[in-house]
Amino acid sequence: MEKIIQHQDPFCSGAFILNPNQEGYVPFKDNSLIYLTQENNEGLKRQILKLIDESQFVLKICSFIITDKEVFNAILNKAKQHRTAIFILTQLDDSKLKNTSELSNYLTEEELKENTVQAHLYCIKTLYDNGVHVRAATTAHAKFIVSDRSIGFLTSANLTTPSLVLNTETGVYLNQTDAMDLDKLFDVIFQRGTRYRQYITATKKKNFIGQSDLNISKEQLPNTEHALIRYTYEQLTHNLYEEIVGMICLAEKYIYLSTYSIVGLENLPEFQDAITNAIARNIRIYVFCRGMNYRNDHLKACEWLNRAGCHIYADLYNHSKGIISESKGMIFTANIDGNHGLINGFEVGYILNEQQRMMMFELHKYLISSSVYIFTANPIRQHFFDTYSSYEKTKGISAPVFPQQISITMRSGLSVNHAELLERPVFYAQTKDQKFLQAGASLYKCNYHDGTFHLISKEIMKYDIEKYILKYFNLKIQFN
User: Fold this and answer.
1) Mind listing the GO molecular function terms for this protein (predicted)?
2) Is residue 170 a contact partner of residue 203, using CB atoms and an 8 Å limit?
3) Residues 6 or more apart from 266 whose CB is under 8 A from it?
């Protein structure tokens, strides 16, 4: 069976394409209400460095990963002064740190390209050797700092250079009462919810990380019913997720929702019901995320939101997270992710005061008006190719060039997903000695010669190789 596809044919799935109504980029002006990372704006990083520098007797840091050299050196110098007790809650689980597929749910593509795991382990080991108290929870993804038990700062940013220099990130100070509650939450997780508690040095090049059994119950976690903090901790409490759902249910005019990724909505039925019911009440829902056309799970969830009636916008670098209605606002550390975080990890959120809410409202309107992409159902293929050409130019990617007329053939007997090849974008990738095509959730090893890709075998999805969109005027697919 032979199928011929032309560049003016539509895809049968949704995708992010260039936003024709995008306004020119001007950095959003942050202030003491909301601190930001954006291009040419490192206000959030300056606050983190200030907190570290000014901490007097105890400093507590929760971050999935720590690799930024300036932040690392600030913590190290503080530790060497021997005047401030420093505690770090982080990630040391090999199953997450060395699994690129798993890491892609927690780190941005910029962070993944930075040899992040090795840099993180070096930073943590060095800090540990200099007297910093380090423990790790296997599900920790929250990002916050508590200084002297009463100054709290919550942020969407990992302590990495991309998050503190390039990505769109947000951060806010907590009021003193809630900062003290966050301090208590840190203590409970650090003391009872951490599996990795010590380094055991075997040689100069090899270290083992001592493990211990978890010993934490719901009764030991802080009760934040009358506080402004919300959090998810594994299976014990999900009041962060419940707050997000509740805000959507109670909205009377609009919802603005920002996140890095949107995946696993089938595991968040309460969220789906809240969205569906809000749209039925004529609530306007605007979603701002990162335009990741290469992540099939992200596109699948965006397709659901689009069909439900949400308006979805995106840019190249968003990593901020928050939700705003006409009466309430919250910043949080979790992605809208039913697989990792919202219902099974350690994530934290903070309900904003009215001034902060208004500032976040203005920020979300600005992010959408200046967004590079808009999610579109069934876009014309050429529009998608144009979007990727712009993406490659912005990112400085030198994509391989193929003929305008290309073909895909396949080994006899090879099982392929016809719908994915016909209806979704096809990506090309290569390593030193292998070539691949990806369509939807399927990856195939292939040979290439003179405009023809020949599929050889189906492979396990790879997340650690650069993938390029396959552009064409005409694509001929020869199925077995």
Assistant:
1) phospholipase D activity; RNA endonuclease activity producing 5'-phosphomonoesters, hydrolytic mechanism
2) no
3) 338
167 half-sphere exposure, CB direction, 13 A CA radius: 29
In order, the DSSP letters of 53-94 are: HH--SEEEEE-S-B--HHHHHHHHHHHHTTSSEEEEEE---H
Find out whether 311 and 286 touch, Cβ atoms under 8 Å. Answer: yes
User: Is the confidence at residue 203, as pLDDT, over 60?
Assistant: no
d(CA 2, CA 478): 5
Distances (CA, A) of 435 to 141, 443, 444, 451, 454: 34, 10, 9, 14, 10
Highest mean pLDDT among 94-103, 113-122, 277-286: 277-286
What is the C-alpha separation between 357 and 365, in angstroms, rounded?
Answer: 12
Of how many residues is the chain composed?
A: 480
Residue 212 has pLDDT above 70, yes or no: no
Q: CB count, 10 Å around CB of 178?
A: 18
Task: Dihedral sign for Cα 348, 260, 117, 158, please.
Answer: negative
In 3D, which of 460, 360, 457, 461 has the Cα closest to residue 411?
A: 457
pLDDT per residue as tens digits for the range 145-177: 999 999 999 999 999 999 999 999 999 999 999
Domains for the chain: give ranges and CATH numbers.
2-13+395-478 (no CATH), 23-371 (3.30.870.10)
In whole angstroms, give the CA distance from residue 298 to residue 259.
11
Using CA atoms, how far apart are residues 264 and 348, in angstroms rounded to an integer? Answer: 19
**pLDDT at 30 > cutoff 80:** no
Rg (CA), the chain: 23
* Contact (Cβ atoms closer than 8 angstroms) between residue 96 and residue 176: no
The two three-digit tokens of residue 102, written as one number: 């798993």
**Cα–Cα dist 323/89, whole Å:** 26
Pairwise pLDDT comparison (30 vs 71), residue with the higher score: 71
Token pair for 437: 């095509």
Q: Within 10 Å of residue 478's Cβ, how many Cβ atoms?
A: 13
CA angle (109 as vertex; 105, 459 as ends), nearest 5:
70
Q: What is the pLDDT of residue 344?
A: 87
d(CA 425, CA 379): 11
Mean pLDDT, residues 95-111 taken together? 62
Strand order in the sheet with 2-6: 2-6, 474-478, 405-410, 452-459, 442-449, 435-439, 426-430, 467-469
Q: Is the pLDDT of residue 205 over 60?
A: no
- 63-85 pLDDT, tens per residue? 999 999 999 999 999 999 999 99
For the chain, the average pLDDT equals 91
206 has a pLDDT exceeding 60: no
